From TrEMBL, chain A:
<keyword id="KW-1133">Transmembrane helix</keyword>
<feature type="transmembrane region" description="Helical">
    <location>
        <begin position="241"/>
        <end position="261"/>
    </location>
</feature>
<dbReference type="InterPro" id="IPR001750">
    <property type="entry name" value="ND/Mrp_TM"/>
</dbReference>
<feature type="transmembrane region" description="Helical">
    <location>
        <begin position="76"/>
        <end position="99"/>
    </location>
</feature>
<feature type="transmembrane region" description="Helical">
    <location>
        <begin position="164"/>
        <end position="185"/>
    </location>
</feature>
TrEMBL record, chain B:
<dbReference type="InterPro" id="IPR005133">
    <property type="entry name" value="PhaG_MnhG_YufB"/>
</dbReference>
<feature type="transmembrane region" description="Helical">
    <location>
        <begin position="39"/>
        <end position="59"/>
    </location>
</feature>
<keyword id="KW-1133">Transmembrane helix</keyword>
<keyword id="KW-0812">Transmembrane</keyword>
<feature type="transmembrane region" description="Helical">
    <location>
        <begin position="65"/>
        <end position="90"/>
    </location>
</feature>
TrEMBL record, chain D:
<feature type="transmembrane region" description="Helical">
    <location>
        <begin position="68"/>
        <end position="86"/>
    </location>
</feature>
<protein>
    <submittedName>
        <fullName>Cation:proton antiporter</fullName>
    </submittedName>
</protein>
<dbReference type="InterPro" id="IPR046806">
    <property type="entry name" value="MrpA_C/MbhE"/>
</dbReference>
<keyword id="KW-1133">Transmembrane helix</keyword>
<feature type="transmembrane region" description="Helical">
    <location>
        <begin position="9"/>
        <end position="30"/>
    </location>
</feature>
TrEMBL record, chain G:
<feature type="transmembrane region" description="Helical">
    <location>
        <begin position="236"/>
        <end position="259"/>
    </location>
</feature>
<keyword id="KW-0812">Transmembrane</keyword>
<feature type="transmembrane region" description="Helical">
    <location>
        <begin position="407"/>
        <end position="432"/>
    </location>
</feature>
<feature type="domain" description="NADH:quinone oxidoreductase/Mrp antiporter transmembrane">
    <location>
        <begin position="123"/>
        <end position="421"/>
    </location>
</feature>
<dbReference type="InterPro" id="IPR050586">
    <property type="entry name" value="CPA3_Na-H_Antiporter_D"/>
</dbReference>
């Protein structure tokens, strides 16, 4: 099949979202079933794209309108994008199923639309090869996220959404200034083209532009101290959406940040920015872990944990080495699996037992053993216990970090990880050793997803080889800019 | 430079002068009602002058007649909408409780509203007044 | 360290951005903060447009005697159209959020809208 | 006191930030020709897209993905506002009817504004207009109806369906391009059918730009009206 | 030909005065009236600019602007009058 | 005030809209005309119920004639109004004596009332504050003695109407009556 | 061959999982014991291969996640693995009696695999992985019984693990190697080329010290051990203390193997010793003294042996820290003796607790009559621990003492001596308070320990005696270990012979110990004592309570007997020092960390979106200042 059909990754969620108003009359079940169906098809397409990219070893370049870059916008579905678009689709599929149980607040048709568009936004952010188009997809993602954060229509939800809007608004404004500067200095918006021209940019414009672009994306990527919106949004959003935030929305921001960092590696002030990102990422890990330590709300606790992991990924991606990026991508994948599982199970407990306070988890091992077990596996994985998937990526990140000369950051990150181990242990302990209660029938579909994710965690933990080979290719995709440029079929423009 | 252009330019000059006048009224008049009195009319007429003048001027300068037609469309639109917005604004000002200027001599509208608000009272009031006469 | 010499358009655009930022940083009322954000967006849009301007050239609509050599850069204008719509969308959503907040909290003072913390 | 300190700090901060931004901007001087891809567009826009307005050609054709995204953003806003302000039962908040001046004025203006909105989006490839201003203009017409009549409401189901169908049509036009020309959002009307090639600068040209702008116009019009509708209603007890 | 400078000067003064009224108020309708006048003046200015650049297409922009401004002013007026 | 047939109303709307289209495009390009006609047909179909009640009857020659004649009449009044404004604004003492007066109109149709209100607003010293049925409440920048000295409400209305509404009503009565 | 290493490694784990899944009484235990026996049997079988391929040991390799993983069965590895599996087998027998659930079997066997794996690993990936497996499993054993103690163990273990991870990362960053051989070579080169800076080297050293110190229970990282050892299944504790904690000691040896030259180059000598080794020696010495004092002061037998364990591992560290071949030999011997006598002690404790349900001295007395076999076992353990010939404990302690004297470390030797004296003090109390004297009335029905437990004890008691009487058996093998180590240090294939003599006689440069003679003398002495006991005058039986008040008036709360507050005067003498408890220090540290966490959380995420906007502005400001300046 023609590689251009990868554009269905964008077209399908869009057309499906637009179709929802026409079927809303059929009722909640129909809409939810439709949501599951569409995400399943999207997973299929993403799977096809993935196998195409990994079997040929070459990226798919989707040229919208048939225009060659930089005249037209192109999607660059390389090894990274192919992998992550698949993850986006799979997580969305699972969360669509979860939504069936977890989301009861009306209007459900709007929920379905926003859900699909959140998936679309992240897909686009990951796939696009154009810096302004990245902005557009980033806004699609974040505006959808604003809406979904407030979806429950409680005061807290609106408050969280408002904070997200204000901070996201500032971030995107400065991002756009950065884009304007980069455009002004290069005359182009295509990432490959910009990478080609980065060395010739006016030095101050490049420096300021780079800084602003990274600043804007860092808000989305939840870097300290730009992440203050995140715990609130994670806590307030409907459970499946929180899982999506953590599993891929923030990843899209991280990826975009990494992509632009390396695209602009010939720009003035590049290594300074790298250092700053490293510093912020390290602080992100430390602050988030400490913030989670005494958190009474488990969902919020895991939100903080997610932020800290994200900090670790940002750290890895900003190391400026192939090893660092591969480790970062590895961690992105592992973290997506683990956090999807954690938010799924915590959310499920939340809707079943009426809240996500730590008290709700007492005796969970007896009340909902399957949920408790999978949640435990996820927690152990999050801590970085060996034989669970995150261990491998964490080790890779640490190795790469020390190799790149950031031993003190690594030491701080490890120190903070001790804190993480403590609060997850507290959760596990509460589930298994505190309290009692009636056995509750657990939902079959959610159980299957949870088991699948938990199994994935363990399988990768025991046999990480294949995934590691895979993410190295994906990391290569981000790191090797010359390769990136060579794959973008740039046409000659200008005099 | 022909007569048409000259006429157009003159109209533009007059129009902008009325713009100025309109803004001046906005400054000099003592309260919102009187500001509206002076500024709405001048701004509308000013626009008329500027728009139609520009159209004529363009045609006089050798541009197409479409200029005149389009400019006139805008002028007509403003002619229709400016009084409507002025009316909406003055009504809003009155209903939001902004008092008439202290030098105002009569307020029939207040009597009308009060009479409407309490039909019975209005009835008796009018009969009382009638009685006095 | 010398003052950079920039055009008045850039200056105006940056000023709007900074005024907006100032508003976000000091205003207590949520509506004022949202307005400040809009001002910021306006400034950014203005900046985008200014980036594409070329002295002495006209809008990139190739009619009425304007050829490719007489037109300014069309790209920033296209971008601004998108940016404006995005701004409108964000504002609409922000207003809805503010409406819910007012309904639930009875205030728009951001110092009192902090049930989620810690 | 704290407030004063805060203000002073804010001012100092924004001055420094502003100085920094200005430094960066000094690197891309105002008024200079910084075009690279821009030149390409200006030189090839007419033959490649059939549009006179280079901006429109970029918006709809060269950078169609952005516009698809832009349409989506507005759709999100409309959906999001609808989702957030959704209540079981809602009514208009307005309490006083507009005077006969306003109601009649709006009634007379309504067709004119709709007409003009349509004019704007259909001439997008020729004038500075396009689907977004056209749609916004049409939505203004509906806004005026809301302003004048306290009980007016748009036909919700119709508008929602129209919105969805318009969005789908946009994607479909893109998918037809994928099927015919091999590329998503490929301008098959201009590049495959060569329809309107002789009409350059006249209405029936511009490839699929007028088609897409019509779709966008309808979509934006219904969406903005929907947003207005949502904002002007409040929950009422059963 | 008197030159565009004179018109621009008059328009500038008018705009500044209106701006002053907008800033000073004292009541909200005062500010609204100022806005209304400013939008009207701006419409005229846009048409003048169209002629200055000799681009008829800008006239459409002016009309769109006039329509949106009218809608805005009416909305504000109705809001003042007692809610929307 | 009887409602005309739908066909009549639709056709009238179509004609007006097409004329508007002509003005908007300011072009006689057949492509524009073709599309304009189609568009007018569509928009007219949607909007005719609110646009007109009397349909083609609006195009009665007498009405059209009066309407055309009304234009210079009104423009003249408006120019006078502006001179009046200029006088009051530029006069150092700002000679104003404002008040809200009450008039009545003989016009029955809404478009007529709208035209009257707009005409009042744009002409010397008056702005329509509110219209309630037949009652017009006018903000007057210089309420003349004769109105102020009116003994009764009826007299007040009569004298105010004489000054404010009557001059326009003779045209508007024909055009919209 | 290769598969045998894998089989040996994973049999316990698989057996544990099977026992956990099947969970039928009888089958569960059988599987567990078999799982414990298999590695032991395989190790015995491999003995000749190991010894014959001294410089080319059996190796097993595989690839995990892009890392090459290596297991090696050198003489060093075999020694530690064999000791561990010996204790493992004893543990399995003990657990038949003491543990009645599958949970214990799962994690006990899991930690068995972990410990074996740590000893057999020859690269840092597998080393760390199995280290963590071992930690995790032992943690789960504690967690089940005491949350607070498990948390302490957990936190310190995690700190240790992350310290190790960081150290590994640093090494990897500098050498690009994770395999021990590669690291060894790279470090050797690096010592000469000077690629790694002084601070980095010291940092790595400190990190490893932390990591291994935690596991070994070295002062001041020992605070987890008393709780974790005592709040556990005591059969498992036999393994925990006897084998698992040796992993820490083994780590110190590893440190020598991997980077001795580098550490010497960087840190230099100190009064004729390797500075880094000197640090280790002192840590060991302090651990010995502190733990022994604390052991003396305990009123709970589990706590007593817990502190005692800490102190005994301190001996090993001390020995390794001496840094001479003699020191290594002594340390290695003590690895074995400590494993067998402390393992035996814990099984004895397990038996006592199982049969009486009591743990405090004040509740015991006169059990010797009721549990004679257990008593005999404990007598062996006591003798061995106290370093009384001819038990294994004496031989190893003697070697360590000799090493310290030879190396001119009088203070360290003093610590050994003091430690021995204190050990004598507490085992005497244990011996008397538990086994002799008046029996509380509620202990009248106590039975002898069950058979499996007795078998477990016997498995450990026999080596105590055998290796005590014939220490040459051990030292001969230790010479092979040392040869291997020498080979690892310098690639020289020379047979080292540090401790010579025969099976019954140890000869060192400074002294000779003839175990056979001592045994004969002891047998004769015991015979004489027995005759006196049987035929001597009958002593009047007096109550043991209230006989010893240290000159203080007898009151309710100042009431000393061998069963209660026996060493209270010592505690009072040490009052000043006891105020400084690392346990409390860490608790306070944790409290501060939690307060800090709250402060940070409430302060930073204060809920005010304006504050949040300021954070953004500040970052912008930093960027701006960065750009402007
Ligand atoms: Na006006
Ligand atoms: Na106006």
């Amino acid at each position: 099949m023609n590689g251009q059909y990868a554009s269905l990754l964008i077209a399908l969620p869009l057309i499906s979202a637009f179709f929802v108003p026409l079927i809303k009359g059929l009722g909640r079940k129909a809409v939810m079933g439709y949501l599951v169906l569409i995400t399943a098809i999207q997973t299929g397409i993403a799977g096809w794209v993935f196998s195409e990219v990994y079997s040929t070893g070459k990226p798919i370049i989707v040229m919208a309108g048939g225009w060659k870059p930089p005249v037209g916008i192109n999607l660059y579905i390389g090894h990274f994008a192919a992998l992550f678009v698949l993850i986006v689709a799979i997580v969305s599929f699972f969360m669509a199923i979860f939504s069936y149980k977890a989301v009861t607040v009306e209007p459900i048709d709007k929920y379905a639309m926003l859900f699909l568009l959140l998936m679309l936004g992240a897909t686009g952010m990951i796939a696009t090869g154009d810096i302004f188009n990245l902005f557009v997809f980033m806004e699609i993602t974040s505006i959808t996220a604003y809406a979904l954060t407030a979806y429950n229509k409680t005061g807290e939800a609106a408050e969280a959404s408002m904070k997200y809007i204000v901070l996201g608004g500032i971030g995107s404004s400065f991002f756009l200034i950065g884009v304007a500067l980069i455009y002004g200095a290069t005359g182009t918006l295509n990432m490959g083209h910009i990478a080609q021209l980065a060395g010739t940019m006016n030095a101050t414009a490049a420096q300021v532009g780079l800084a602003l672009v990274i600043f804007g994306l860092a808000v989305e990527a939840e870097l300290f101290p730009l992440n203050a919106w995140a715990p609130d949004a994670y806590q307030a959003a409907p459970h499946p959406i929180t899982a999506m935030f953590s599993a891929f929305v923030v990843k899209a921001g991280l990826y975009a940040m990494a992509r632009l960092i390396y695209i602009l590696q010939n720009a003035n002030g590049w290594s300074d920015i790298l250092k700053l990102v490293i510093a912020l990422a390290t602080l992100t890990v430390v602050v988030a872990e400490f913030s989670a330590l005494r958190q009474r709300d488990v969902k919020r606790m895991i939100a903080y944990s997610s932020i800290s992991q994200v900090g670790m990924i940002a750290f890895a991606l900003a190391l400026g080495t192939q090893a660092g990026i591969s480790a970062g991508v590895f961690h992105m994948v592992n973290h997506a699996i683990v956090k999807a599982l954690l938010f799924l199970t915590v959310g499920y407990v939340g809707i079943t037992l009426g809240g996500t306070k730590i008290e709700n988890f007492a005796g969970l091992g007896k009340r909902m053993p399957l949920t408790a077990l999978t949640l435990t596996i996820g927690s152990l994985a999050a801590v970085g216990i060996p034989l669970f998937n995150i261990f491998w990526s964490k080790v890779r990140i640490l190795l790469a970090g020390v190799e790149a000369g950031y031993s003190w950051s690594v030491a701080l990150i490890l120190g903070a990880s001790v804190v993480e181990a403590v609060y997850y242990l507290r959760l596990i302990h509460t589930m298994w050793f505190v309290g009692n209660g009636e056995r509750i029938r657990e939902n079959f579909a959610i159980g299957v997803i949870a088991i699948f994710l938990a199994a994935l965690i363990v399988v990768i933990g025991i046999y990480p080889n294949d995934l590691w080979t895979l993410v190295q290719k994906a990391g290569q995709d981000i790191f090797n800019v010359a390769n990136y440029i060579s794959h973008v079929p740039l046409m000659g423009v200008g005099s | 430079m022909n007569a048409l252009a000259a006429l157009g330019e003159a109209l533009v000059l007059i129009g902008t002068f009325f713009y100025f006048l309109s803004a001046l009224g906005l400054i000099r008049m003592p309260d919102v009602y009187n500001r509206m009195q002076t500024s709405t009319k001048s701004a509308t007429l000013g626009s008329l002058g500027v728009l139609v003048g520009t159209g004529l001027w363009a045609v006089g300068d050798g541009l197409s007649w479409a200029w005149f037609v389009k400019a006139t469309v805008i002028a007509v639109f403003l002619l229709l909408t400016n009084p409507i917005s002025a009316h909406a604004l003055i009504r809003a000002a009155y209903k939001s409780g902004i008092p008439l200027w202290q030098g105002s001599v009569v307020d029939k509208y207040r009597e009308h509203i009060e009479a409407k608000a309490s039909p019975g009272a209005a009835e008796s009031e009018s009969t009382e007044e009638g009685g006095e006469e | 360290m010398s003052l950079p010499s920039i055009s008045v358009y850039y200056f105006g655009a940056i000023s709007l951005v900074l005024i907006g930022l100032y508003g976000v940083l000091v205003k207590k009322n949520l509506m004022k903060i949202l307005i400040s954000l809009s001002i910021m967006e306006t400034g950014v849009n203005l900046l985008l447009i200014s980036i594409g301007y070329v002295s002495g050239k006209s809008a990139p609509i190739l009619s009425e005697g304007i050829g490719p050599a007489q037109a300014v850069d069309p790209i920033p204008q296209a971008l601004v159209l998108t940016a404006i719509v995005i701004g409108v969308a964000t504002t609409a959503l922000a207003l809805s959020t503010a409406m819910i907040i007012y309904e639930k909290y009875g205030t728009l003072n951001i110092e009192e809208i902090r049930r989620l913390r810690g | 006191m704290v407030s004063l300190l805060k203000r002073s700090l804010a001012i100092i901060s924004i001055l420094i930030i502003g100085y920094w931004l200005a430094q960066g901007l000094a690197g891309v001087p105002f008024g200079q020709d910084k075009m690279l891809v821009g030149h390409y567009y200006l030189q090839h826009v007419k033959e490649q897209t059939g549009a006179v307005n280079a901006v429109t050609a970029i918006v709809v054709n060269y950078r169609g993905f952005d516009t698809l995204g832009e349409v989506t953003v507005l759709f999100i806003a409309s959906t999001g506002v609808g989702a957030l302000l959704w209540r079981k039962k809602r009514e208009r908040t307005a309490k006083t009817e507009g005077s006969v001046v306003l109601t009649t004025g709006v009634e007379l203006l309504f067709p004119f504004i709709v007409m003009f909105g349509s004019y704007i989006f259909i001439h997008g490839h020729l004038t500075p207009g396009g689907g977004f201003p056209g749609g916004a203009t049409i939505a203004t017409a509906f806004l005026l109806l809301y302003m004048a009549f306290i009980s007016y409401e748009i036909p919700h189901r119709l508008f929602e369906n129209l919105e969805g169908i318009a969005g789908m049509s946009y994607v479909l036009v893109g998918l037809i391009g994928l099927a015919i020309g091999g590329y998503f959002l490929f301008d098959w009307i201009w590049q495959t059918w060569h329809w309107g090639t002789s009409n350059l600068g006249r209405l029936f040209s511009g490839g699929f730009i007028p088609v897409i702008y019509t779709i966008i116009g309808i979509k934006v019009g219904t969406e903005l009206s929907g947003i207005v509708d949502n904002m002007l209603k409040e929950e009422v007890g059963e | 030909m008197i030159g565009i400078g004179v018109y621009l000067a008059l328009i500038a003064i008018a705009t500044l005065l209106s701006m002053y009224r907008f800033m000073v108020g004292p009541t909200t309708p005062d500010r609204l009236v100022a806005v209304d006048i400013m939008t009207t003046i701006t419409t005229g200015l846009m048409v003048l600019f169209a002629l200055y650049y000799r681009r008829m297409i800008f006239l459409d922009v002016a009309l769109v602007y006039a329509i949106l401004a009218f809608g805005g002013v009416i909305a504000f007026a109705r809001y003042m009058e007692g809610g929307l | 005030m009887e409602e005309a047939s739908n066909v009549s109303r639709y056709l009238y709307t179509l004609i007006v809209l097409f004329l508007i289209w002509l003005a908007l495009t300011a072009s006689l390009d057949p492509q524009e005309l073709t599309f304009g006609l189609i568009l007018s047909a569509i928009v007219a179909a949607i909007t005719y119920p609110i646009f007109t009640t009397r349909g083609l009857a609006n195009l009665h020659p007498k009405r059209v004639t009066y309407a055309i004649a009304y234009v210079p009449y009104f423009l003249w009044a408006m120019i006078m109004a502006n001179l009046d404004v200029a006088y009051r604004v530029l006069h150092p003492k700002k000679p104003i004596r404002p008040g809200v007066v009450h008039c009545k109109t003989v016009l029955k149709t809404n478009p007529g009332k709208l035209s009257l209100a707009n005409s009042i607003t744009l002409t010397p010293g008056t702005i329509t504050l509110d219209v309630d049925g037949d009652d017009y409440f006018i903000h007057w920048i210089w309420v003349p003695d004769e109105v102020l000295s009116a003994k009764s409400e009826e007299e007040h209305v009569e004298r105010a109407s004489e000054n404010i509404t009557r001059p326009f009503e003779k045209f508007l009565k024909v055009i919209f009556g | 061959m290769m598969n045998e290493i894998a089989v040996m490694l994973f049999t316990p784990l698989i057996a544990g999982i099977l026992a956990w899944i099947i969970n039928v009484k009888g089958i569960r235990e059988t599987i567990g014991v078999l799982g414990a026996l298999v590695p032991f049997a395989l190790l015995v079988k491999e003995y000749s291969t190991v010894v014959n391929n001294l410089y080319n040991p059996p190796t097993y390799q595989l690839t995990v996640s892009g890392f090459n993983i290596t297991f090696k069965l050198g003489t060093l590895n075999w020694y530690f693995a064999a000791v561990a599996s010996l204790v493992g087998v004893a543990m399995a027998f003990g657990m038949i009696s003491t543990s009645r659930n599958s949970y214990d079997w799962l994690f006990a066997m899991m930690s068995y695999t972990g410990v074996l794996g740590v000893f057999l690993s020859w690269d840092f990936v597998s080393f760390f992985l199995l280290w963590e497996l071992m930690t995790f499993a032992s943690f789960m054993m504690v967690l089940k019984r005491n949350r607070h103690e498990s948390l302490k163990y957990f936190v310190l273990s995690v700190i240790g693990a992350y310290a190790m991870l960081l150290a590994i990362a640093l090494i990897y960053a500098k050498t690009g190697a994770l395999n021990f051989d590669d690291i060894r070579h790279a470090m050797y080169l690096d010592a000469i080329m000077g690629g790694m800076s002084k601070s980095e080297t010291i940092l790595i050293f400190a990190l490893f010290l932390t990591a291994f110190g935690v596991k070994a229970g070295a002062w001041p990282l020992h605070v987890w051990a008393p709780g974790a050892y005592s709040e556990n299944d005591q059969s498992y504790t036999a393994f925990f203390s006897g084998a698992l904690s040796k992993a820490g000691a083994y780590g110190f040896l590893l440190l020598y193997i991997l980077m001795m030259v580098k550490l010497y180059y960087v840190m230099g000598p100190f009064h004729g010793h390797l500075t880094f080794a000197y640090i280790i020696a002192w840590i060991g010495a302090i651990t010995v003294v502190v733990a022994s004092f604390l052991a003396v002061l305990q009123e709970d037998i589990r706590k007593l042996f817990a502190y005692s364990s800490i102190g005994q591992v301190g001996y090993i560290l001390l020995a390794f820290g001496v840094g001479t071949w003699m020191g290594f030999a002594g340390g290695l011997f003590h690895v074995l003796s400590h494993a067998v006598f402390k393992g035996l002690f814990w099984l004895v404790t397990a038996a006592i607790i199982l049969q009486t349900g009591k743990t405090r001295f004040e509740d015991f007395g006169g059990l010797a009559e009721k549990m004679p076999i257990t008593f005999a076992m404990s007598l062996i353990a006591v003798l061995s621990l106290a370093g009384i010939p001819p038990m294994a404990g004496f031989a190893s302690k003697w070697l360590i003492y000799e090493a310290a004297i030879q190396a001119h470390m009088p203070l360290v030797a003093g610590a050994i001596f003091l430690g021995s004296a204190l050990a004598f003090a507490y085992v005497v109390r244990f011996l008397y308070a538990v086994w002799f004297g008046q029996r509380p009335s509620d202990l009248e029905d106590v039975q002898e320990a069950p058979l499996p437990l007795l078998i477990g004890m016997a498995i450990l008691a026999i080596p105590n005696v055998v290796f005590g009487v014939a220490p040459g058996l051990v030292t001969k093998y230790i010479n092979k270990v040392l040869s291997y180590m020498l080979f690892l240090f310098g690639e020289r294939k020379v047979d080292v012979s540090i401790v010579t003599g025969s099976y019954y006689k140890l000869v060192t440069p400074t002294g000779t110990y003839n175990a056979l003679t001592v045994t004969l003398m002891l047998v004769v002495g015991l015979a004489i004592a027995g005759l006196i006991y049987i035929y001597g005058a009958k002593a009047r039986r007096i109550p043991v309570t209230n006989t010893y008040q240290s000159g203080n008036p007898v009151t309710e709360d100042y009431n000393l007997s061998i069963r209660r507050n026996f060493y209270r005067p010592l505690a009072e003498a040490l009052e000043f020092w006891l105020k400084y408890s690392f346990d409390r220090f860490y608790e306070r540290l944790a409290g501060i960390a939690e307060d800090f966490a709250d402060w940070l959380r409430e302060g930073f995420y204060n809920g005010n979106v304006q504050a949040y906007s300021w954070y953004l502005a500040i970052v912008l400001l930093i960027l701006a200042l960065w750009g402007v300046l």
